[in-house]
Design brief:
Structural class: alpha/beta
CATH superfamily of the largest domain: DNA Cyclobutane Dipyrimidine Photolyase, subunit A, domain 3
Strand content: 5-15%
Number of domains: 3
CATH architecture of the largest domain: Orthogonal Bundle
Helix content: 40-55%
CATH class of the largest domain: Mainly Alpha
Strand order of the largest sheet: 3-2-1-4-7
Shape: globular
Number of strands: 7
Distance between the termini: 69 Å
Length: about 450
Amino acid sequence: MAEKLNIFWFRRDLRLEDNVGFHKALNGKYPVMPIFIFDSEILNELPKDDARVTFIHETLQEMRNKLQERGSSLAIYHGKPIDVYKNIVTDYNIQNVITNRDYEVYAQERDKEIKKFLSTQKQDSDSNDSSEIGFYDYKDQVIFEKDDVVKADGDPYVVYTPFKNKWKDTFEPKTDLKNYPCEKHFDNLYAHSRLPNMSLSDIGFEKSKIDVPSYKVTPSLINNYEDTRNFPAIDGTSHLGPHLRFGTVSVRKMMEKAIAEKNEVFWSELIWREFFTQIIWHFPKTQHDAFRSKYDRIKWRNNEDEFEKWKTGTTGYALVDAGMRQLNKTGYMHNRVRMLVASFLCKHLLIDWRWGEAYFAEKLLDYEQASNVGNWQWAAGSGVDAAPYFRIFNPITQVDKFDKDKKYIKNWIPEFGTDTYPEMMVDHKEARERCLKVYKEAVS
């Protein structure tokens, strides 16, 4: 009879330490076979040199090597998750599948399908009767999820500040920042060092020229965060986004650092991420539809030539263009500039926020659906706790406020100030008046 195993399914938690679900699996009754699935449903939408896929693949190989040092490994598959599981249950005597929760809409639907399938599969158990394969998931990528932080009547918060206040009232460092050590339980790993592997070319990809930068969350960065985070010419951000997105770092450890340094602004940024995560869980329609439904009545111009100028950073508005060129070149854009380019697309050009959200989804190393949708709807005025529609960033005065010496602009636009740099594609005043008219007609 084949050895009874539990599976731990890595997804957005690509680390071997302080990992809730992995820790639970390793403390279970049966040896653990770790797996990762390159989901073809997701990969088919991505460019073949996608930097995030390269980053994931390299991270997985590092994890695989560490596990092989302990006589085990990490099985790596490619395909639709449901098809992969249909094969796994025929190849191995699986008792349970254990994983960490994902709150995005596609992920929830995928997990329901997998759980339903596993419930129909009978495997040899310790009793005389065969039993269905269990599916267990745990909270790992956030401190609070789902209904952990809600109003007194049980309704979700749709404004950030009261959510943050309730979050802090609910927070208990001793329990909520508990560490989940995994390595000391590696003796319960499945003893097989030659599990299936995949090269980048096996999954139809090639190594990207864009690297995901290491995060830096030093005491000095945290303490200076409030003073430096709004100035794109200063490297004052943590570059933590991709690492939280893919789980190469524990959110509990990052919260612990923020609290240790008593930095309210840095702490609040981490809570914003949880705010948007619970919004998309409570309101899944917001992945496609405006949270404030009347904003779906806006008559977007959706001019494709103008969208192309925005994408390529040739609008003639220097801070907008610098941001888009930084994004295209590095997969990153400074947060202050993200607000400006989003506002410019939606309000100056009257292009649907979904177009911008989709472009960011393609390009951003730290793309998270919940935060990306939340921030784009904020910029468009259509989301929770959104900027009012009549708040329209002036892309000229934003330069004076945040890049007065034009260091950021000149870094990304070498032709700035020459005849080859394009004229402004729209007049700010005229675009503002047009936006106010169109928005007012839609929402009043």
